[in-house]
Write a structure and sequence with these properties.
Blueprint: H1 2-18, E1 45-46, H2 57-67, E2 80-89, E3 109-117, E4 132-140, E5 143-150, H3 163-170, H4 186-194, H5 199-205, E6 220-221, E7 226-229, E8 235-244, H6 253-262, H7 266-276, E9 282-291, E10 317-327, H8 331-336, E11 349-350, H9 355-371, E12 440-441, H10 453-461, H11 464-479, H12 484-494, H13 499-509, E13 541-546, H14 552-564, E14 568-573, E15 577-580, E16 586-589, E17 591-592, E18 603-608, H15 614-629, E19 634-636, H16 639-646, E20 655-657, H17 661-673
Parallel strand pairs: 13-14, 13-18, 14-17, 18-19, 19-20
Antiparallel strand pairs: 1-12, 2-3, 2-10, 3-4, 4-5, 6-8, 7-8, 7-11, 8-9, 9-10, 15-16
Helix pairs in contact: 2-9, 3-4, 4-12, 5-10, 11-13, 12-13, 14-17
């Protein structure tokens, strides 16, 4: 009887909901007001390469609805972490820009930086294969400047009109809300196959760049083309880069999946601990600049957000350094309430007609209105500028300013027409005067139509190990796709990038192998390969496996020497407390084999202990074997050497065994600096 009642109740609820249920299949697209839509790919612009127009009601409706889809968590970039710091320019950039914070090498500018994943919810793991947000707020004396970018220099789409579609496709599928923080599902790859402008970004997303070792070892890019404008009104097109001083490094995919289980807070913990330890993350700010008169001299459109400017053609000029030196005091008040916006600029920095950037200039303010409850999000402490602000805006949710007086309009005589505007000479912001001449049109410039050349250049630039990782990434992602049609569409699409790549993952997923394509692109950009990045042992974490009876005098000396190289060591044993050496000196154990894992460390040093039994060495062997399979540096002295020899690791690249402390430290430090040893044959 109860069962029958429950079934009827369920059916009653279903009937109640059916009046609101719709099936969009086989229907004509309309706006929410019922107006039929003639074009849903391109925003309305003043000419094919012109700016997006405010009168585009379809774009504004579509983007507004998208911006307000989640409350209060960010729709994208929900999972993140942040820190405070400062930026200092190396030399005056006055010839290129009048931006005040880029003038004085002796004057630091406070900054706040938020790193994030894109696709996952606030509670998702941090080692998802995903782009990473890299958003920087400069608190300048001329107002706040937000450089809102990613760790990948290009994007999936060319026009902001497509952004809601992209995110809908990569988010968990709406019928079952799966999978979380992952693109390995049908709707994402269906979007890719049917929106081939995504080819270049997908190549980056399938590369090691999408699974960074840490926020501290991750590049940042402004993605879009902006403008520098100097005091004479001269304009340069500019792209922004953040170059980590420690180099750009990644984890391997198997390792990433395990880290998400072992420590889903891995990236934020790494950032927090580095700052707490005084190992302040550092990034150099670089700019690529193109004089306005050279806008059309390249074989790609410099306003296309799916294209990068190869560093070999447009060198990156390093102009300053950012140091993150203070953790947040309260995650919600600072990190969660931080409101970034690419439209927050200062005099000397301006926009271009990049159609994706143009849409973001509308979308970000719109998003903050719903996420932070109203128009006064700029008054929250983390968002408040360091310079005073005065205008006639009043009231609204969350208002903190108490305005005196009766006047709140411009122009006026009751307050002597104050607050008054500033001239350009007084620091008033003046938009760059660009001539616009074109029809109002929904169309994409023909110069945006090449979707594969730079994707191929990216493939050509990778090392053999990186290429193999990309084939494996495609194989994993598409192996999770259920639709055979979508799988084949993606194979056929990426055959336009490189036949070897497409055939590699086609074979893995059982798809039809594509025919050889006549792809004549041989161009490379060595700067794109992580094999060519800075390699340093500094701040690398080494797991030190110790047992009772270890060679305490020698081992302590080795640990001190490793520390002097900037390497961090943490002792692992079979129980917490103190581990005793053969001379009865002690070292504290930070982790047991149960509470630690090799995936949480950059390298392993095995010293062992004479008094330990087979159970200890069995656990140690498992720990070391996993690190070995992830191509990590492994070192051993004393009893540890026998363990590696027994596992046939002793002659493998990146494995260092020595009884001489000086020799061991030198060679092991070199192995740690190398990050990974891809030439190793994994047992």
């Amino acid at each position: 009887m109860n069962k029958e009642r429950n079934m009827n109740g369920g059916n009653g609820k279903k009937e109640q909901l059916e009046q609101f249920t719709t099936d969009d299949r086989n229907q004509k697209m309309t706006t929410n007001q019922g107006v039929k839509v003639s074009e849903d790919e391109f925003s309305l612009k003043a000419g094919e390469r012109g700016p997006t127009l405010m009168e585009d009601f379809h774009f504004r409706e579509k983007m507004t609805h998208f911006d307000h889809e989640r409350i209060p968590e960010r729709i994208v970039h929900a999972r993140g972490f942040a820190a405070h710091g400062e930026f200092q320019v190396y030399e005056s950039m006055k010839p290129y820009t009048k931006a005040g914070f880029l003038q004085d090498p002796d004057k630091p500018t406070p900054v706040f930086v938020r790193f994030s994943t894109v696709a996952g919810s606030k509670g998702s793991g941090e080692l998802a294969r995903d782009a990473r947000g890299f958003a920087t707020k400069f608190y300048t004396e001329e107002g706040n400047y937000d450089l809102v970018g990613n760790n990948i220099p290009v994007f999936f789409i060319q026009d902001a009109m497509k952004f809601p579609d992209l995110v809908h496709a990569l988010k968990p599928e709406p019928h079952n809300e799966m999978p979380q923080a992952a693109t390995a599902h049908d709707t994402f790859w269906d979007f890719v196959a049917n929106n081939q402008e995504s080819a270049h970004m997908v190549m980056w997303a399938m590369s090691d760049r999408a699974i960074p070792r840490s926020f501290r070892m991750m590049e940042g890019f402004g993605v879009h083309t902006f403008r520098f404008v100097n005091e004479e009104g001269k304009s340069h097109f500019v792209k922004f880069h953040w170059k980590p001083v420690l180099g750009t490094h990644s984890v391997v995919w198997d390792e990433a999946q395990k880290i998400n289980g072992k420590d889903p807070d891995f990236h934020r913990r790494d950032l927090w601990e580095a700052i707490e330890n005084g190992d302040y993350p550092e990034y150099e700010l670089g700019v690529q600049m193109i004089p306005e008169e050279e806008e059309f001299r390249f074989d790609f459109d410099i306003l296309d957000p799916t294209k990068l400017w190869p560093e070999e053609e447009v060198p990156v000029k390093l102009i300053g350094k950012m140091t993150l030196n203070r953790n947040v005091d309260n995650v919600f008040a600072e990190m969660e309430q931080a409101a970034f916006h690419p439209g927050h600029v200062v005099p000397g920095i301006d926009f271009t007609n990049d159609p994706l950037l143009q849409g973001r200039l509308f979308s970000y303010t719109d998003t903050q209105l719903i996420r932070l409850g109203g128009p006064n999000f700029h008054e929250l402490p983390i968002n408040r500028p360091v310079c005073p602000f005065h205008n006639n805006q009043r009231d609204g949710y969350g208002r903190q300013t108490i305005n005196r007086g009766k006047v709140s309009y411009h122009k006026n005589s009751l307050a002597q027409n104050t607050p008054e505007t500033s001239t350009e000479e007084e620091g008033g912001y003046k938009h760059y005067e660009e001539k616009i001449d074109g029809y109002k049109i929904r169309r994409r410039s023909d110069s945006f139509k090449d979707h594969f050349t730079q994707a191929t250049m990216f493939w050509n630039s990778m090392s053999e190990a990186e290429k193999e990782h990309m084939i494996e990434a495609f194989s994993f992602e598409l192996g999770k796709v259920e639709s055979k049609s979508v799988q084949q569409q993606v194979v056929d699409m990426f055959a336009n990038v490189n036949t070897e790549l497409a055939r590699g993952f086609a074979k893995a997923i059982g798809a039809e192998l594509p025919e050889e394509k006549d792809n004549k692109v041989t161009k490379k950009s060595p700067a794109l390969s992580q094999e060519n990045t800075t390699k340093s042992p500094a701040t690398r974490k080494v797991a030190v496996i110790l047992g009772d009876g270890f060679q305490d005098t020698e081992v302590k000396g080795i640990l001190e020497k490793l520390s002097s190289q900037g390497i961090q060591t943490e002792v692992i044993s079979d129980q917490l407390g103190m581990v005793k050496g053969e001379n009865q000196s002690e070292l504290e154990v930070q982790h047991t084999f149960l509470t630690a894992d090799s995936v949480l460390f950059d390298a392993v040093y095995v010293a062992g202990g004479k008094e330990e039994d087979k159970t200890f060495y069995k656990k140690a062997a498992y720990f070391v074997q996993e690190a070995f399979s992830h191509y990590k540096p492994i070192g051993a002295t004393h009893a540890g050497g026998k363990l590696l020899e027994g596992a046939n690791m002793d002659e493998s690249p990146g494995v260092v065994i020595s009884e001489d402390a000086e020799t061991f430290v030198t060679k092991f430090t070199e192995a740690v600096a190398a990050h990974r040893h891809w030439e190793r044959e994994v047992i």
